Amino acid sequence: MPAKNDLQHMRGIRKILVKHWIDLGRMRINCRDGHVELRGTITPLFGSNPDFSAEQIGQLIAHIRKLPDTATIDFSELKFNGGTNVTSVAAAGNG
Amino acid sequence: MKTILAIDDEPMMLQCLQTTLEKEGFHLLVTGNPDQGIEILKKEAVDLVLLDVKMPQKNGFELYAELREFTEVPVLFVTAYPKALTPSSPVFKEIWEKGFTDGVTDIIYKPFSIDALLEKVTLLIGHADSD
Q: Nearest-CA neighbor of A75 among A24, A8, A28, A26?
C-alpha cells in the first residue's frame, strides 16, 4: 500500500516520463520509502521519436535520481530499444 | 468509498473491471454508452473514469474533451490500440501536454494484469478508502 509521499514520488517520476514522450502504457512505476522500481519497456510514444539512445536513457535515469525523494532505483526489469536492459546503461556509467 | 465510472463498449471488459475493482473496495458504475457516461458524470460524484478509446458511438478522445468542459476528474484511458495515442493527432497531443503533465490522465493497454490496473488506479486516486 503506497503512502501519500510514495504517491507524490510516483507522480513526479511520471511527469519526467511525460516530458520525454515516453509511452506510459508500457511502463509500471512503484515507489516505497524512496525506493523506485521501474518495470516494462521505455518506448517513445507512437510517432513521436525514433528509439532512445543509451545516452538518452542514462539522462532519463539521472533525472529520476535527482528527485529529492529518490533514494535507490531498481530497473532490473526495465528494457528499452526492444530488449536492451537499462541496467547495462547504468553499469556503463551513464545512469 | 471511491467511485469509478467505466465507459467501454465491450460488456465483458465492463464486467471484468467491475468484478476486479469492487473486490478492491471501489464502487463501480459502468456503461457502454458514452453519452450516458457524460450524464452519469453530471449527476454522480465520480473519483475516476476508465475510458475506452475506440468505441463505435464516440471516440474516447472526443468524450474526454466533452467531460473536461465540466470536470477535472482523473481519467485512465483503456485501449488495445497503442497507435491511437500519437502526437501526430492534435487532439491527443493536447491531452498529453495538459492532462498527462498534470498527473490526472494515464493509459493502460489491453490486455492488462490486475496488478498493473491497480497500480494505475492507485497512482491516479489512491486506494479505495484513502482520503
A: A28
Which of A14, A19, A48 has the CB atom closest to B103's CB atom? A14
Hey, what CATH class is B3-125 in? Answer: alpha beta
Residues in chain B with CB shorter than 8 Å from the CB of A1 are 127
Helices vs. strands in chain B: H and E counts, helices first: 6, 5
The pLDDT tens digits of the residues spanning B72-91 come to: 999 999 999 888 888 888 88
Domain ranges of chain B: 3-125
Which grid coordinates belong to A43?
518506448
Enclosing domain of residue A28: 4-91
Amino acid at A59: Q
Q: How many structural domains is chain A composed of?
A: 1
Residues in chain A: 95
Q: Locate the chain B residue with the closest alpha carbon to A9.
A: B123
Q: Contact A70/A61 with Cβ under 8 angstroms?
A: no
b/e code B50-80 from CB counts within 10 Å (16+ = b): bbbbebeebbbbebbebbbeeeebbbbbbbe
A7-56 residue pLDDT tens: 889 989 999 999 989 999 999 999 999 999 999 999 998 877 778 888 88
